[in-house]
Every structure is written in C-alpha cells, then in structure tokens.
Amino acid sequence: MSYEDRLSKFNITSLNTRRYQHDLITLHKLVHSVIDSEYIFSSVNINFKYNPRRRLPTFVIPTYRYISFHNPIARMCRSYNEILPVNQALDIFNANLFIFKNCIKKIVVDLNVASF
User: Rounded to whole angstroms, how far apart are CA atoms 83 and 88?
Assistant: First the structure.
C-alpha cells in the first residue's frame, strides 16, 4: 500500500503538511511568548522596515551553510515568509492562536504544501 493510499485510508494529512502547520503554530507561540525561551526567541529576527512599494519578508533569515539551512527556527521563519504573499490576511502578530490555526489549516490545504 502506498503512502498516499494510507493517508486517504486513515484520513490524515501528509507528514510534510503536518510539519509545515506545526512550524507555523510554534512560531506563533514563540512570538506571543507562549513558549517562554529567551534563547530560542533571540534566534528570531523580525524585519521592521516598511516600504509600501515593495513587500519585505516579515522574518529576516540569516544566510546559512547547508547544514544550518535546516535548523528549525530558520525553517519556521522561512515557512511564514513563503505563505504570507499567498494570503495577506494571515497575521502572526494580531491573531489569537485558535484563529491562526484555522487560517493555517485552510491555507495549507488550498496550497498543497508538497510544493514548498
């Protein structure tokens, strides 16, 4: 039985989709201090520059070598930066966790995260 067949049989989403959703939810919790870790939060760089002519990414991701490219904080920030142009209504700073989770689920299902 293939992976896709098992997903449909048990009515679950793919591991990639679940990882993507949980990355964004964890980033939301970090930004709102639900996860209280000064060390982890210090790794998140927020871009406060505003230019109405061009959309800048919300989170600044430092340039990494190949191994560091896959660290969880960079992956979370990159996921949010990728999904934001698709849905401008997604706001990690103002939405409560319940609303944010529902919005993420809708967006991820519509986009089919396998493309990310």
Answer: 9
